[in-house]
Structure formats: structure tokens, C-alpha cells
Design brief:
single chain, alpha+beta
Length: 106
């Protein structure tokens, strides 16, 4: 009986974790499925250049799909490789939404 329980304790987790999960084929998010005649809401080459460098792609692969511009601040949504990514503008600096550049705690 002990051998059976021990065998089940070893075999069942092994079978559970050994399942292969096939990677999903490149799925394009709904909001990044843009029509051919799509016109970007703003023309901001600095933002496109920053997003391209941040994600390691060419500037031509970046499309700005949403822009909420304020005085000295703004929130932008850009499509990169079919995935939407939000960026925030503070003054003249762009950063990815949700990242804290001042988080120095270790």
C-alpha cells in the first residue's frame, strides 16, 4: 500500500507538469487589427522612436492608435507586433504605463 501511494505521489505530478503547451500563433489584439487606410491620431516621431527602441523593432512597425494629450502630460496607446502597449508622457519624457522610474528600493 505504501509503495502504491508513493508511486502515485511521484507519477501524478510528473504527468501534470510534463504536459506540453503549444505556443499560441501570433494573435493580433482586436484594437491592433487596423484597416489599411488607418490614420494615426497624432504625428509624434519622438514617441514612435522611443517605442521602437523600447521594444526592439523598427519605427515603421509602430502605430499610435490612441492619444490623450494634455498640457505637459498624456497617455498614448501604440501597437507593436500586434499588441497594444500604453505609454505615458510626463513633461518631455515618455515611459511605459505602470513602470516607476524612481523605484530604487531593492
Amino acid at each position: 500500500m505504501k509503495k502504491l501511494i508513493f508511486t502515485l505521489m511521484v507519477v501524478l505530478p510528473t504527468l501534470y507538469f510534463a504536459q506540453e503547451e503549444k505556443p499560441k500563433e501570433s494573435q493580433i489584439a482586436k484594437e491592433c487589427d487596423l484597416p489599411k487606410d488607418f490614420k494615426e491620431p497624432i504625428k509624434n516621431n519622438r514617441l514612435k522612436k522611443f517605442v521602437a527602441i523600447d521594444n526592439g523593432v523598427d519605427e515603421k512597425e509602430v502605430a499610435i492608435i490612441r492619444a490623450q494629450n494634455g498640457f505637459g502630460s498624456g497617455i498614448f496607446t501604440a501597437c507593436v507586433k500586434g499588441q497594444p502597449i500604453q505609454y505615458q508622457k510626463m513633461g518631455t519624457v515618455f515611459m511605459r504605463e505602470g513602470k516607476n522610474p524612481f523605484n530604487n528600493a531593492k
